[in-house]
Design a protein that fits this description.
acyltransferase; 5 helices; 8-stranded mixed sheet; GNAT_dom; EC 2.3.-.-; alpha+beta; transferase; 200 residues; Acyl_CoA_acyltransferase
Length: 200
C-alpha cells in the first residue's frame, strides 16, 4: 500500500484528480495559455512534450516518490494546470508540494490557494504528515511570495542545487510547514479565499 493513495479532492469549484494520459490535451492547452514554457525559472512542458511530462509523473508515482494531480475546473472539467506531492518520505511522514503551474488566465485567482488548501488538508489530516515542504528557484520571486503567503517558513537556500532548462545552475530556496503550524495557516488560507468570494 502506497503512502499516497489515489484520491480526488475538490472544493470551491476546484478539483484535483490523479494526473493521467487522458489529461494530455487539456494540459497542453493550459501550458499554451501564456506560453508558460518560455518562463526561464519553471519546468512547464512545451505542448509537444506534454505526453512525456505526464509519463515522467506516472513513473514517479509508480516509484513512490511523486504523486501528480491534474487541477481542473470542477464544473466544466477544463484542465487548469497541475500540482504534485513529491519527495515523499513515508518513514518521517513528510511530503513536498511542487511541480505546480497554471494557465495564465487562472493565475492570481482563487485556484492556487484552493488547491494548496486541499493538498495541505489531505497531507496533515489524512496522511498524518509531520512536515510539508516546498522548493523553488532562487529567481522565481513570484513562487517564493506565493509559498510565503501560505504560511510556510523559509528553511534556507541550497546553492548550486539543480539545472534549469537553459543549462544554467540554480540555487534552490527551501520552505516548510510543520503540523503544529497548520491550524493557523489553514485559518489564514480560508480568510484569503473569502476575499475572492463573489459578492452576494
Amino acid at each position: 500500500m502506497s503512502f499516497v493513495e489515489p484520491v480526488t479532492l475538490r472544493d470551491r469549484g476546484v478539483r484535483l484528480e490523479p494526473l493521467a494520459l487522458e489529461h494530455k490535451a487539456g494540459l497542453a492547452a493550459a501550458a499554451a495559455d501564456g506560453e508558460l514554457w518560455k518562463i526561464r525559472v519553471t519546468s512547464v512542458p512545451e505542448p509537444h512534450e506534454t505526453r512525456s511530462y505526464i509519463e515522467a509523473a506516472l513513473l514517479g508515482r509508480e516509484q513512490g516518490h511523486r504523486f501528480a494531480f491534474a487541477v481542473l475546473d470542477d464544473e466544466s472539467g477544463k484542465v487548469l494546470g497541475t500540482t504534485s506531492y513529491h519527495d515523499i518520505l513515508p518513514a518521517v511522514r513528510r511530503v513536498e508540494i511542487g511541480y505546480t503551474w497554471y494557465a495564465r488566465s487562472v493565475q492570481r485567482t482563487h485556484v492556487n490557494t484552493s488547491a494548496k488548501l486541499l493538498l495541505l488538508a489531505h497531507a496533515f489530516g489524512t496522511l498524518g504528515c509531520h512536515v510539508v515542504g516546498w522548493r523553488t528557484d532562487n529567481f522565481n520571486f513570484a513562487s517564493q511570495r506565493a509559498i510565503e503567503r501560505l504560511g510556510a517558513k523559509k528553511d534556507g537556500v541550497i546553492r548550486g542545487h539543480a539545472l534549469r532548462r537553459d543549462g544554467t545552475i540554480r540555487d534552490t530556496v527551501m520552505y516548510s510547514m510543520r503540523s503544529g503550524e497548520w491550524p493557523e495557516a489553514r485559518a489564514q488560507l480560508l480568510y484569503l479565499l473569502e476575499q475572492h468570494a463573489p459578492a452576494t
